[in-house]
UniProtKB/TrEMBL annotation:
Belongs to the FGGY kinase family. Gene3D superfamilies: 3.30.420.40. Catalyzes the phosphorylation of D-xylulose to D-xylulose 5-phosphate. Its EC number is 2.7.1.17. GO terms for biological process: D-xylose metabolic process; xylulose catabolic process. It holds the Pfam family FGGY_N. Keywords: ATP-binding, Carbohydrate metabolism, Kinase, Nucleotide-binding, Transferase, Xylose metabolism. This is Xylulose kinase. It catalyses: D-xylulose + ATP = D-xylulose 5-phosphate + ADP + H(+). Substrate binds at residues 71-72. One of its GO terms (molecular function) is ATP binding. Residues 4-240 form the Carbohydrate kinase FGGY N-terminal domain. The record marks 8 as: Important for activity. The lineage of its organism: Bacteria, Bacillati, Actinomycetota, Actinomycetes, Micrococcales.
Length: 468
């Protein structure tokens, strides 16, 4: 039976799954780490991708492959196909001022109407404006701009820097898909076209941009291997869990994201909801925070425990952690747009200052930032019948249980797996089959709603003070 592969080139690592085309059964997998930091040489992603493929036993027997990846990262290429400078990632906040300049130029509603979203520092457009203003010699050299998954797809197809690749630096062979393009800040998800006036404003000239490929078409063929368009990681996760109306997906990776597949486009000029496209060319209204799984990593090292112990400690405390609140803005924050904010531990007394309360406050704080996202989606008309929890921190049973209390919604935890990579594999399968297969998804846990606990209300008291 033919095999298909899907890749998740995410912030912290690269993962590959190889699946049976018909049943979707996992056949082999591999992973490799990415370097830390918000500025990364794309070569590190290419090395990790090759290491992950090697760990998975290679892809010689695979018929189709697609790459999902972290969104927004700015990869700039010169005319020889060389990377001009390290990529600035989605969680690099240096271009916050440039985001404001774009909003001032086009107006908040104007830019939201043109691109579906109000740009914040994460968006590629703001990074290009930062480049033009701070490294004009680099900006002048830019012949093409692409996203992390676009660049990896191009490399996998055999293109790359002059002298270092079989097919050479053909920039016109760069491809992408609507879901990832919709995170650039210069793409209109409603028309499916790039918005040149924004691009010209931020870079000063029009570079080559990746061609938009439909989800069930091959972007390239390499011998017998079909290479798909790929996708932004959140859109791929929605596709990987087969999200349908009433499902809201919450992903707890480096970023925290809340999103749903919708037939209706959004154009939120407040900037809370990003109006992205889905893999299937519907829409993917999405709220993203900068502080998710790494909040727990950081609290684990502060308390000297591992993730299981952090979870066990948290479950010893009562909902609301006896008034202890962590506002987790360790990396600044994106939603709300507070790029320079710092985290704060609030409400401590000599009595409630326990390891259990602090562990619980860490999990509640991470989730409360996302509960505000759920509320925003609800206000935009997105129905939440259940929350599907994915991403690294979703594996933690305490996180799953506390999510039901914080969100006040039933939680479904799919069987442990790489759902971004699975979504990419499902897209690859759709190239061979003409449409995406309905692979069965096993459920690990279903946690009924317990109603909303006290955590969110007390969190808002402290978090709202940051907005004053
Ligand atoms: N059991 C767990 N509990 C909490 N966090 C976890 C657990 N297992 C992994 N993580 C965290 O999940 C993160 C990796 O998740 P992942 O979704 O792969 O991130 P990304 O997509 O941003 O690279 C790491 O920060 C890791 O420490
Ligand atoms: O910026 C966004 C979404 O807009 C992030 O969701 C990135 O796409 C990174 O995802 P992870 O690597 O944290 O999963």
């Amino acid at each position: 039976m033919p095999l298909v592969a899907g890749i998740d080139s995410s912030t912290q690592s690269c993962k590959i799954v190889i699946r049976d085309l018909e049943s979707g059964a996992l056949v082999r997998e591999g992973r490799a780490s990415h370097p830390n930091g918000t500025e990364v040489n794309p070569q590190a992603w290419w090395n990790a991708l090759n290491e992950a493929i090697k760990q998975a036993g290679g892809i010689d027997d695979v018929s189709a492959i697609s790459i999902g990846g972290q969104q927004h990262g700015m990869v700039v290429l010169d005319t020889d196909g060389k990377v001009i400078r390290d990529a600035l990632l989605w969680n690099d906040t240096r271009s916050a001022g440039q985001a404001n300049e774009i909003v001032a130029k086009f107006g908040a509603q104007g830019i939201a109407d043109l691109t579906g979203s109000l740009p914040v520092a994460s968006f590629t457009a703001t990074k290009l404006l930062w480049l033009k203003q701070n490294e004009p010699e680099n900006a002048a050299k830019v012949a093409a701009v692409c996203l992390p998954h676009d660049w990896l797809t191009w490399r996998l197809a055999g293109y790359g820097p002059l002298g270092e690749s079989a097919l050479g630096p053909d920039l016109s062979a760069l491809t992408t898909d609507a879901s990832d393009a919709s995170g650039t800040g210069y793409f209109n998800p409603k028309t499916g076209e790039y918005v040149n006036e924004v691009l010209e404003f931020v870079l000063g000239h029009l570079p080559v941009l990746p061609k938009i490929i439909e989800p069930n078409k091959a972007a390239h063929t390499k011998g017998a291997l079909a290479i798909g368009a790929g996708a932004g990681d959140n859109a791929a996760a929605a596709f990987g869990v087969l999200a349908k109306a009433g499902d809201v997906v919450v992903s707890l990776g480096t970023s925290g994201t809340v999103f749903a597949v919708s037939k209706t486009a959004t154009n939120d000029s407040t900037g809370t909801i990003a109006g992205f496209a889905s893999v299937s060319s519907d829409f993917l209204p999405l709220v993203c925070t900068l502080n998710a799984a790494r909040v727990l990593d950081s609290m684990c090292s502060m308390l000297g425990v591992d993730h299981n112990e952090l979870g066990a400690l948290a479950l010893q405390a009562e909902p609301g952690a006896d008034g202890v609140v962590l506002v987790p803005y360790f990396e600044g924050e994106r939603t709300p747009n507070l790029p320079d904010a710092k985290a704060g531990l609030h409400g401590l007394t000599l009595k409630n200052n326990t390891r259990a309360n602090i562990a619980r406050a860490a999990i509640e704080g991470m989730l409360c930032g996302l509960a505000a996202g759920l509320e925003a989606l609800a206000a935009a008309g997105v129905k939440t019948e259940r929350v599907i929890l994915v991403g690294g921190a979703a594996a933690n049973p305490a996180v799953q249980q506390i999510a039901a209390e914080v969100f006040g919604a039933p939680i479904t935890v799919p069987a442990p797996g790489e759902y971004v990579a699975n979504g990419a594999a499902r897209q690859a399968a759709s190239i061979l089959l003409g449409s995406a297969p309905d692979w069965k998804i096993e459920t690990l846990a279903q946690i009924p709603t317990t109603g909303q606990g006290p955590a969110l209300a007390q969190y808002k008291k402290y978090a709202n003070a940051y907005l004053a």
